[in-house]
Amino acid sequence: MNLPFAEPFKIKVIEPIYRSSREERESWIKEARYNLFNLRSDRVFIDLLTDSGTGAMSQYQWSEIMLGDESYAGSLSYFKLKDVINNLLGMPYFLPSHQGRAAENVLFSAMIKEGDIVPGNSHFDTTKGHIEFRRAKAVDCTIDESFNTEIYHPFKGNVSLEKLEETYKKYPTEKIPLCVLTITCNTSGGQPVSMQNIKDVSALCKKYGIPLIFDSARFAENAYFIKTRESGYENKTIKEITKEMFSYADGATMSSKKDAIVNIGGFLACRDKELFQKASTYCIMFEGFVTYGGLAGRDLGALAQGLMEGTEFDYLEARVGQVAYLGEKLKSYGVPIQQPTGGHAVFVDAKKFLPNVPKEEYQAQTLAIELYLEGGVRGVEIGTILADRDPVSRENRYPALELLRLAIPRRVYTNNHMDYIAASLANVYERRDKINKGLKIAYEAPIMRHFTVELERV
After folding, report:
1. What is the CATH number of the domain that holds 157?
2. CA 134 to chain centre
3. Total domain count for the chain?
4. For residue 126, what pLDDT is reported?
5. If you average pLDDT over every residue of the chain, what do you get?
6. Last-in-domain residue among 256, 281, 309
7. Do you find a cis peptide bond into 391, omega within 30 degrees of 0?
8. CA angle 396, 398, 401 (to 5 degrees)
9. Positive or negative CA dihedral for 234, 239, 242, 246?
10. In which domain, by residue range, is 328 found?
């Protein structure tokens, strides 16, 4: 008999969670103005709002917490992390930051100015927000297959080389300060980018003299998909694949709260000393001195250890496998999802799930509310509310995909929890024909509105 799969870890500490009633949840979500970000965490049974900073650290990471050097300058924990980043990514210069969007802020302050064009593969919310805040424009060059949830493509995060070169030809080179390649691509469903596509994008960027920067929050999951889906990489280790991936980039930002499995932290890494020096000024202004960047020494140490653990195959097989397990469960119930499942989350196609709800009434957000009411499961909308308004016309932007993201924290939930999530969503799916009204906005911020938006039932 073949042995079944088992997680490569055991549980040492548990955190109790409260089972609420439907009546309680109806009251709580109304009080939260139908914004799941406004819910208290003890009012959530299974929390899939994000996989950012929500993972369970290992005993070795907790050991690093105790070993942290809290010196303001020249912390030994900083040098430990610097060595790991250089050895793993092959980038000699790095600046720590308290999280990924802070690293973006430091980098973009050094590189982007008003009127610039920043192409990439479906920029995520904070990336696009930082670009548009500087009165620049993000251009999506993702392949068309990404926007059809029903078809199978092993690398739906890929950039269309035709779209990218068209952008390079359309605008003056001096107006394109960088190209952002997100690995994996969150907005398109946690979808990976192939090594061949990374090579081709890098070559195209070099042809036009444009720096290539990775948004690398989930680079290890991307490396796992290259190993398991791309010919020629099946016998390479995750760390070997990672080193090759980053060899094609000029720099990278990372929210380490994802693939480094820490609760706080991020960084900017690069090869160019001049860019490092320019960015250092903004790091000191916004984050802190260059050897701590807004982090305690203990966090730097845990991050260094997490980068090593997060690039081990056994861990990634369990992590990505759990996401796939939930995806297959949902498919067995007929629930429409982005296929194939990505590395960190299952993305439910809200347009197909709730066709009776008008797009103007925010289908994915409506579905997120229904799932919470059904089972106390908190997901997040990746759709029209997140897409925000056009900065010029101020009209809603309706993206090609209207998705409910179920982001699974690392090493936190069991497959019994996945079964519960799937059953909750299946129950909503069974009554989907009765859901024909959505939500309207009562208050919104001028940018990145989805975090603080207030909504009402239509």
Report:
1. 3.40.640.10
2. 22
3. 2
4. 87
5. 96
6. 309
7. no
8. 150
9. negative
10. 22-51+313-457
362 Rama sector, left if φ>0, alpha if ψ -120 to 50, beta otherwise: left
Q: Do 82 and 247 touch, CB atoms closer than 8 A?
A: no
pTM here is 0.95
Whose tokens are 């939260």? That residue is: 32
Three-state DSSP at 169 gives: helix
Using pLDDT thresholds of 50, 70 and 90, give the confidence band for residue 390. confident
Task: Kindly list the strands in the beta sheet with 212-215, ordered across the sheet, starting from the edge strand earlier in the chain.
Answer: 93-97, 266-270, 251-255, 212-215, 179-182, 117-120, 137-140
Nearest CA to 95 out of 265, 282, 290, 381 is that of 290
The catalytic residues are: 72, 124-125, 215, 217, 258, 450
In a domain, 12, yes or no: no
Residues 384, 328 within the same domain: yes
What count of residues does the chain have?
458
Domain termination site, one of 309, 330, 352: 309
Report which residue type is found at 202.
S
* Amino acid found at 330: L
| Amino acid present at 444 | E
Residue 23 has pLDDT above 90, yes or no: yes
